[in-house]
Amino acid sequence: MQIEHDSKARRFKAELPTGTAYLAYATAEEKVLDFYSTFVPPPARGQNIAAKLVEAALGYAREQGFRVIPSCWYVALWIQRHPEHDDLVAH
């Protein structure tokens, strides 16, 4: 599975046989991204696709010097379960 960063649409996406999975974000303020929605088509759920989207998005944020607001419940839960990424969360 390949994850692409679509900066115009402000999302990280993966094209799947059952549709497009994505993590959408907005710019909250300078150098802060709000990860507000994650979606995986129902037939593809339970295959760690959302987790891979979060990993890609957080990797991008770290590389580019962004902090994040995990508005999406899934992103917030994923960061809670992976505290090594807590330093990226804007408090």
Q: What's the number of domains? A: 1
The tally of strands reads: 5
Query: Main β-sheet: number of strands, strand sense, barrel status?
Result: 5 strands, mixed
Strand order of the largest sheet: 1-2-3-4-5
CATH architecture: 3-Layer(aba) Sandwich
**Rg from alpha-carbon coordinates:** 12 Å
Number of helical runs?
2
How far apart are the first and last residues' alpha carbons, in Å? 32 Å
- Sequence stretches where pLDDT stays below 50 over 5 or more residues: none
Q: How would you describe the shape?
A: globular
Order of helices and strands: EEEEHEH
Provide the CATH superfamily.
Gcn5-related N-acetyltransferase (GNAT)
Q: What's the quick description here?
A:
The chain has 91 residues and is an alpha+beta fold.
Characterization of this structure:
By secondary structure, the protein is an alpha+beta fold. The chain has a single domain, classed as Aminopeptidase (3-Layer(aba) Sandwich). The chain contains two helices and five strands, in the order ββββαβα. It has helices spanning 49-64, 73-81, and strands spanning 4-6, 11-16, 19-29, 32-39, 67-69. The protein has a five-stranded mixed beta sheet with strand order 1-2-3-4-5. A hairpin with a 2-residue loop joins strand 3 (19-29) and strand 4. The termini are far apart.
Provide key terms for this protein.
Aminopeptidase; 5 strands; 91 residues; alpha+beta; five-stranded mixed sheet
Please render the helix and strand layout as text.
Layout: E1 4-6, E2 11-16, E3 19-29, E4 32-39, H1 49-64, E5 67-69, H2 73-81
Parallel strand pairs: 4-5
Antiparallel strand pairs: 1-2, 2-3, 3-4
